[in-house]
Amino acid sequence: MNKAKSFIDYSKTVLSIRGLRKSFDDFHVLRGVDLDLFQGENLVVLGRSGTGKSVLIKIIAGLLKADEGTINVLSREVSRLTPRELDELRLKIGFSFQNSALYDSMTVRENLEFPLTRHIKSLSRAQVNQEVDSVLEAVGLAQTASQMPSQLSGGQRKRIGIARTLILKPKIMLYDEPTAGLDPITCIGINNLINEVQEKYHTSSIIITHDLTCAKMTGDRVVMLLEGQFGRQGTFEEVFDTQDERVKSFYDYNFTN
Amino acid sequence: MILNDKNAGRAGSRKHVISGRLDRMFIELSRVFHFLVRFFRELFMPPYEFKEILNQCFEIGVRSLPLISLTGFIMGIVFTNQSRPSLAELGATALLPALIAVAIVRALAPLVTALIATGRVGSNIGAELGSMKVTEQIDALEVSAINPFKYLVVTRVLATTFMIPALTMYTAFVALLGGYVNINQNEQTSFVNYFQQVFEAITFLDIFSSVTKSFIFGFTIGIVGCYKGYNSSKGTEGVGRAANTSVVTSMFLIFIEELLALQVINALRSL
Ligand SMILES: Nc1ncnc2c1ncn2[C@@H]1O[C@H](COP(=O)(O)OP(=O)(O)OP(=O)(O)O)[C@@H](O)[C@H]1O
Ligand SMILES: [Mg+2]
């Protein structure tokens, strides 16, 4: 958090959410969420299971529709876009899924090529290979190119999932629980990767997690989702410097277990 | 829907259970309707996924070929063998090739092909799309700006719609070959003679109606498998259920369609 990151520009918002509400039937998941993501920063969204963290980023990526509120991404209002405009916007957003969501009928290389060859038709075979090799290099898994996703470990799948989104050079990265289900050492590897992505590609990222080590390592700013709203925000230390039982118990559970 | 479930459970009274079920049935029907509307809308809107359509045609055709060859051939032998005694009683064994031809082309080939394809292809589509749904691969397509409905559903439904008629004709041919083997052994009819009798017995309407029926069967298998898979519920049991219910639903619909087609074709014949 105290890293000097010259590429963060707190005067430029790339994503801004106001008064976002979302319910399923009569179950209110998000009840008036306000959020800003600044240029180049890693923003961590903390919250317990079922508080609607995944729902939040699915709304940002247009996978779910908000009931109310405005979602402004890269100066475009998501709810007012035509399907084609939404697709254009989606190419600038990288989405790393909770369980990686690799296409399991394709090899790792085909997984990485797929978004590229679908969207940039002008690339030659050699250029495609070069792009694939370069993102594989970036996530440190060059040797897995010809394997099937089912042959990879959970941590490797996460990395390939991240590589697949990086290949289109997104401006915004959305990570859904990047460290869930991984051992502590692998987690640290993924956290480092998230920071490397930030430095190398200058992406602005939202990192959703309930893993406090991940929050501490990657977050320039942390917000906490409590009862459908952002209860607290600030640096990691600021957020947990409180007597609020809901926040304290979260901290205690993570670090005393 | 989840809500209805809970209410039905809590209220416990029979009336509530039934109205809950009815509600769910109508919700399901309206979803099926929307799925169909979406299919036809996306079918005609570019981009067209030609490569993936060919890919799926190949998959579906090749995947079913060994099983269909075997089943068709055996069906021809068995049907011929079982029909012989009845015809022999009437002293009409000479009519055997004509009988086989009509039975196979009109009824057996379309139905058997559709049922085998349901088990082989329909369940596969249900399971494949179901697991893609559950593991968020469908969402992954969508966020990388690829229309998953077009890429997964439209391609598969088109592939089954065109491959099932092709497979049906192939089944008919293989079954007729099976019939020939049996007749050649017993009655020593020559190959040319046998097929002459076969082609004299079947009319253009027989072939036309069988092919039309197969198109409908193929569409049914594709759309049911895709619908069940695409709307599969969370969790691994959702995938199993998607595969299973696609088979059951498709088979049920195919028999209903067969009955309806029979009425229509008979009406056409009597014109
Ligand atoms: N498509 C949906 N239909 C109905 N309810 C949903 C849907 N998606 C999410 N929910 C509900 O919304 C709530 C929040 O879900 P969400 O997946 O966002 O939780 P989360 O904060 O990501 O939790 P976790 O840490 O377990 O991933 C859950 O109670 C879930 O049941
Ligand atoms: Mg989640």
Major sheet: arrangement of strands of chain A: 6-7-8-3-9-10
| Gyration radius over CA of chain B | 22 Å
Strand content of chain B: under 5%
User: Could you report the average pLDDT of chain A, rounded to the nearest whole number?
Assistant: 89
Task: Give the CA-CA distance, first to last residue of chain B.
Answer: 48 Å
Shape of chain A: globular
Q: If helices are DSSP runs of H or I spanning 4 or more residues, what is the number of helices of chain A?
A: 9
Distance between the termini of chain A: 24 Å
Number of domains of chain B: 1
Task: Spell out the helices and strands of chain B N to C.
Answer: HHHHHHHHH
Low-confidence stretches of chain A: none
Bound molecules: adenosine-5'-triphosphate, magnesium ion
Taking pLDDT < 50 over at least 5 consecutive residues as the criterion, the unreliable ranges of chain B are: 1-11
Written description of the protein model:
The complex is a heterodimer of chains A (257) and B (271). Chain A has 9 helices and 10 strands. Chain A has a domain at 99-169. In chain A, the strands form 2 sheets. In chain A, strands 6-7-8-3-9-10 form a 6-stranded mixed β-sheet, sandwiched between helices. By secondary structure, chain A is α/β, with parallel strands linked by helices. Chain B is elongated and about 65 Å long. Chain B has one domain. Chain B has helices at 2-11, 14-44, 50-89, 96-134, 137-143, 148-187, 191-201, 204-230, 236-269. Chain B is an all-alpha fold. Chain B starts with a helix and ends with a helix. Chain B is 88% helix and 0% strand.
Structure, briefly:
The complex is a heterodimer of chains A (257) and B (271). With 257 residues, chain A is an alpha/beta fold. In chain A, 38% of the residues lie in helices and 27% in strands.
